[in-house]
Specification:
99 residues, mainly alpha
Length: 99
């Protein structure tokens, strides 16, 4: 059951079915039968499709997550590389300042 996925043709058929149930209840004099028109009306108004879901057969690639240790190692290596670059820049500026 999927809401709001009803085609226009099916919607019209449900309204005709609902009217048929009400007319049948009226001509037979059994007005309690008209209660069965209410679920038909609600399903038509909500656009509920009664067709079964069709599987697409889509394949989804799952990416393997890194462990926390690997993530920490990458952060540590990155911070060490950044620190080394800063130190190298300071040494280069210090050498230029002494000239």
């Amino acid at each position: 059951m999927k809401p709001f996925e009803l085609s226009l043709g099916t919607l019209l058929l449900r309204f005709y079915l609902m009217m048929g149930v009400v007319i049948l209840a009226g001509f037979s004099g059994q007005w309690w039968i008209a209660i069965f028109a209410l679920p038909i009306l609600i399903s038509a108004m909500a656009g509920i499709s009664l067709e079964k879901d069709k599987k697409d057969g889509k394949v989804i690639a799952i990416k393997k997550m890194e462990s926390v240790k690997e993530q920490k190692r990458e952060v540590r290596d990155c911070s060490l590389n950044c620190a080394r670059k800063r130190i190298e820049k300071k040494e280069i500026f210090a050498k230029k300042a002494h000239r």
